[in-house]
From TrEMBL:
<dbReference type="InterPro" id="IPR052899">
    <property type="entry name" value="Class-I_DAHP_synthase"/>
</dbReference>
<dbReference type="GO" id="GO:0004106">
    <property type="term" value="F:chorismate mutase activity"/>
</dbReference>
<dbReference type="InterPro" id="IPR036979">
    <property type="entry name" value="CM_dom_sf"/>
</dbReference>
<protein>
    <recommendedName>
        <fullName>chorismate mutase</fullName>
        <ecNumber>5.4.99.5</ecNumber>
    </recommendedName>
</protein>
<dbReference type="InterPro" id="IPR036263">
    <property type="entry name" value="Chorismate_II_sf"/>
</dbReference>
<dbReference type="InterPro" id="IPR006218">
    <property type="entry name" value="DAHP1/KDSA"/>
</dbReference>
<feature type="domain" description="Chorismate mutase">
    <location>
        <begin position="265"/>
        <end position="356"/>
    </location>
</feature>
<dbReference type="Pfam" id="PF00793">
    <property type="entry name" value="DAHP_synth_1"/>
</dbReference>
<dbReference type="GO" id="GO:0016740">
    <property type="term" value="F:transferase activity"/>
</dbReference>
<keyword id="KW-0808">Transferase</keyword>
<dbReference type="InterPro" id="IPR002701">
    <property type="entry name" value="CM_II_prokaryot"/>
</dbReference>
<dbReference type="Pfam" id="PF01817">
    <property type="entry name" value="CM_2"/>
</dbReference>
<dbReference type="InterPro" id="IPR013785">
    <property type="entry name" value="Aldolase_TIM"/>
</dbReference>
<dbReference type="GO" id="GO:0046417">
    <property type="term" value="P:chorismate metabolic process"/>
</dbReference>
């Protein structure tokens, strides 16, 4: 069996979108119970309560989770309020403890997904479980690592799978804690439409004010659910305070989200016309880019003949300024146009470099 053969009927137990919510970290029994009570009272459609029991931290001596005792609090939330429960596991010890505590859904975090040895250890510990296991994207933008983690789980007969898009680390300073890089997640979704995909706006955003927009973007492209951090007193949270919201705010946010219909029947003919036009324009774009790279080849040959360095900072400055100006004139986003021109420029450098080394 391969990943594309999985049915993943487990998600049909829940209404869509499936919302998993609760505090970033379990801090005390009182905090867990109050958060669960308020989630229940808020009217938010949250069937699964999440809490971090073990917390991977970048530096030592920080709060690394309460440990096994927190599993008892999760169980109490389940018994008293009827929630399914979910937590992160990062090694075999975590897996055995979570399974013994009958946690309903387990997830593998981004810092674990990036390490095949860690994923293999977790997969072996989970061997044959029927519990759903969700895999967050690796910290770095590597689609193969993400897929590989799922293949390791399937190799241990773990068949109820899902993935969580939590964004990717970047050295660039942006409004996001972790860049969404939507295309990587959508590439995964294209390859494996049978595997449920959840968005984790809390870790993408790192701040409350962006949560609604990012969650809506995910639902706009057909994600099956979301994992959102909710705390009874977010500002006093022991970890990731800035990205957590109260249960009442969560309920309001969920109530305002629009769930999109994936069925285009009824206007498929009109949609088909628009898509045909896009396909024609895409073909023209490819032809234009091909012609541009042929000119880059000639420039590369000229630079080689005259022993000129490929990268010319002044030329790139002209291109960047032109892209910025055109973005304003066209009404398109400046960041988008700059990304397009940067990609074209990088490919042009590669083309010229191949000329230089006679590829």
């Amino acid at each position: 069996m391969n990943l594309k053969d999985l049915q993943n009927d487990w998600i049909n137990e829940f209404s869509k979108p499936l919302i998993i919510a609760g505090p970033c970290s379990a801090e005390s029994e009182a905090q867990m119970m109050e958060t669960a009570q308020r989630l229940k009272d808020s009217g938010a459609e949250v069937p699964v309560f999440r809490a971090g029991i073990w917390k991977p931290r970048t530096k030592p001596n920080g709060f690394e989770g309460v440990g096994v005792i927190g599993l008892n609090w999760l169980k109490k939330v389940k018994d008293e309020f009827g929630f399914k429960t979910a937590t992160e596991v990062a090694n075999a010890h975590h897996v055995y403890a979570a399974l013994e505590a009958d946690v309903d859904i387990l997830w593998i975090g981004a810092r674990s997904t990036v390490n095949p040895f860690t994923v293999q250890e977790i997969a072996v510990a989970l061997k044959g479980t029927n519990k759903p296991v969700l895999v967050k994207n690796p910290v770095n933008p590597d689609l193969a690592l993400w897929i590989g983690a799922l293949e390791r789980l399937l190799g241990q007969d773990v068949k109820n799978l899902g993935v969580i898009h939590r964004g990717f680390s970047s050295y660039q300073k942006t409004k996001y804690r972790n860049l969404p890089n939507w295309q990587i997640a959508l590439d995964f979704k294209h390859q494996f439409p049978n595997i449920p995909m959840f968005v984790d706006p809390s870790h993408i955003c790192g701040r409350r004010d962006l949560l609604s927009d990012v969650t809506q973007e995910a639902f706009n492209v057909g994600y099956e659910g979301a994992m959102i951090e909710s705390h009874c007193n977010p500002d006093a949270a022991w970890s990731d305070a800035a990205q957590q919201i109260t249960p009442e705010v969560l309920a309001e946010m969920l109530g305002n989200l629009q769930i999109r219909n994936s069925d285009i029947s009824g206007f498929d003919e009109e949609m088909g016309k628009h898509r045909a036009l896009i396909s024609d324009i895409d073909f023209q774009l490819i032809e234009l880019l091909s012609n541009r790279m042929k000119i880059s080849e000639k420039i590369g040959a000229l630079k080689k003949e005259n022993n000129i360095a490929i990268f010319q900072p002044d030329r790139w400055k002209v291109i960047a300024e032109y892209a910025s100006a055109r973005a304003e004139e066209s009404g398109m986003g400046k960041d988008f146009i700059e990304k397009v021109f940067k990609a074209i420029h990088e490919e042009s450098i590669e083309v010229q470099n191949n000329i230089m080394i006679d590829k």
